[in-house]
Design brief:
Helices cover about 30% and strands about 25% of the residues. It has about 250 residues and is of the alpha+beta class. The chain has one domain (about 5-235): Creatine Amidinohydrolase. About 50% of the residues are buried. The mean pLDDT is about 95. Bound molecules: 2-amino-4-trifluoromethylsulfanyl-butyric acid and cobalt (II) ion (CO). 2-amino-4-trifluoromethylsulfanyl-butyric acid (MF3) binds next to strand 5.
Amino acid sequence: MVVLKSKAELEIMRQAARIISSIAKGLCTHVKSGVTTKKLDELANELILQENVEPAFKGYQGYPATICTSINEVIVHGIPENRSLRDGDILSLDLGIKYKEFYSDIALTVCVGEVKPKIKKLVDVTKKALFEGIRYAKVNNHVSDISSSIQNYVEKNGFSIVRNFVGHGIGRNLHEEPEVPNFGKPKHGLILKSGMVLAIEPMVNMGSWECVILEDGWTAVSKDRLPSAHFEHTIAITDEGPEILTSFN
Ligand code: MF3
Ligand code: CO
């Protein structure tokens, strides 16, 4: 687990997060009907090289690409391919970088053209669930206060929260302790302290929360093949409250 010991370390994590946010923003401008996810992966690679940072996912446990591109029923870890985006699709982009020994991780779901209202609602609820969870990322709260607030928000809105994947501590490694589940009862697990940095990342299914992994060993899809959305921010716990290091704007 990383607990940042100095303002200087926090400042590096802020910079890493700023870089990844601007790369994500750049990528989003290319998300439109006709573009392949492979093309988006190439673009992400170029943007990462321009910034002189390292991709965090490529080669991670054998992951074959720079970013994850998860379309519609794909929950997470979709591998970029020659499939073109079509109007009505939703695309979850997930990317991570390493900058001066510190990692940053971000994910967001983008609508391609016009999507059905219920799918739009799924995307909105997932994004709001992330911010709901972040509200509880405060000194002396438990990790599971984040988890339970996310689950409650999602279920109150008629969707289901994925159990198979969780958020995580982040810092000198992409994945560090503690795990940050998106479900569970409040007041359990680790107590949050100033200087901890977390990647909070709810994955929300329109239908059942159950998930299957395809033969490639990575692509996680909803068992009922209904759409799924994913948002992730890297945040720091500070004495002044949660600081969202990454940003979507
Ligand atoms: N944000 C995801 C996670 O933290 C993406 C990891 S992709 C991988 O698990 F390739 F690095 F595994
Ligand atoms: Co992550």
